Amino acid sequence: MIVATLAGPGVRLRGLALRDVDDLVAGYADPVLQRFMPPLPVPFTHAQAREYVSDVAPGMFADGGGLWAIADPVTDRLLGGIGLDKVVPHRGQCEVGYWVGPWARGRGVAAAAVRTLTEHAFHTGMARIELLTHRENAPSQRVALAAGFRPEGVRRAVLPNRDGGRDDLLAFARLAGDEPGPTDRLLPDLPGDELSDGVVTLRPLAPGDARFYAELHNVPDVVATSVPPVPPTDRDVTRRCAWAAAHWLAGERADMVIVDAATGCDAGEIGLYYQEPSTGQAMLGYSMLPAWRGRGYPTRAVQLVSLWAFAETGVARLIAGALPANLASQRVLEKAGFKREAYLRSRLPGTAGRRSDDVQFALLAEDLLADVARLDG
């Protein structure tokens, strides 16, 4: 069958051909693809690749969708694949899915392909296109946002996995009437993927931080100031680290590790929770391993995050709380420029059904600017 060729920035979408079989097999052997594409046969053979070209792709077009090769516009080499399926004609709705081979990643190939195909779909009658991705698959979420898709929530247990269970997927969608261009983010990436003052460095929490995170959140006084005040389970730890990038991309929270800049050792954590975007208010929380306390690292981390938040996001007001007995944490906030505003009785869940009071502090952008001006003066 004849498949329309679609030109996009840095990509060309064309029909799959038998010359793509070797690259199909190589791409589908990638562990990342196998992890996030559970319907994919493992191993994926040359015979299956040929069947994919001769039968599967034409069948998707026959069902009202389609399957295109993402090809290099100069060499025509296969870079990945992209398709439309789950078509609901009376709703003008379908779902887009894509993959990119390891040899072509980091070039914006997927985002360019998604933008190109979605525009084509809108021009041919579609009104709504959905994109589903695993929470752990931050690169795919970046593609969705770069292609103008907006987050809509979680599809619970929507996809059978290889272990016999079912996976949740994050849902994104783009409508024909949406403005072109990337979707705005509430929390941008850190400049150079880190913040540093030469003494401490802050970097995003990542899946590989699970052991450190478990150690930190089993320290008794860290547990006592957690909400709720109980140690996390192994599953909680794994999810917190694996889902940190998704929460950041969704604009919900920015979790960071506090690193000793001289040694590269992980010393603590700090998080910004954007709980009220409509009012421009976010909350800070932090904790340190005992071996790294007494060096002023939390104050430095709070100042770094505050400067970033006021300069790069819509945050206008930062709040933070501390237990009344936690004088050390209160001193951290005061040194960072926060001012005490309230004493909230029984605000936090405690142990054994009891509740704890909370001392609230706040920092405004103008407060921080005044402190910086004073220091410069």
Automatic annotation (TrEMBL):
<dbReference type="GO" id="GO:0005737">
    <property type="term" value="C:cytoplasm"/>
</dbReference>
<dbReference type="InterPro" id="IPR051908">
    <property type="entry name" value="Ribosomal_N-acetyltransferase"/>
</dbReference>
<feature type="domain" description="N-acetyltransferase">
    <location>
        <begin position="200"/>
        <end position="366"/>
    </location>
</feature>
<dbReference type="GO" id="GO:1990189">
    <property type="term" value="F:protein N-terminal-serine acetyltransferase activity"/>
</dbReference>
<dbReference type="InterPro" id="IPR000182">
    <property type="entry name" value="GNAT_dom"/>
</dbReference>
<feature type="domain" description="N-acetyltransferase">
    <location>
        <begin position="11"/>
        <end position="176"/>
    </location>
</feature>
<dbReference type="InterPro" id="IPR016181">
    <property type="entry name" value="Acyl_CoA_acyltransferase"/>
</dbReference>
<dbReference type="Pfam" id="PF13302">
    <property type="entry name" value="Acetyltransf_3"/>
</dbReference>
<dbReference type="GO" id="GO:0008999">
    <property type="term" value="F:protein-N-terminal-alanine acetyltransferase activity"/>
</dbReference>
<protein>
    <recommendedName>
        <fullName>N-acetyltransferase domain-containing protein</fullName>
    </recommendedName>
</protein>
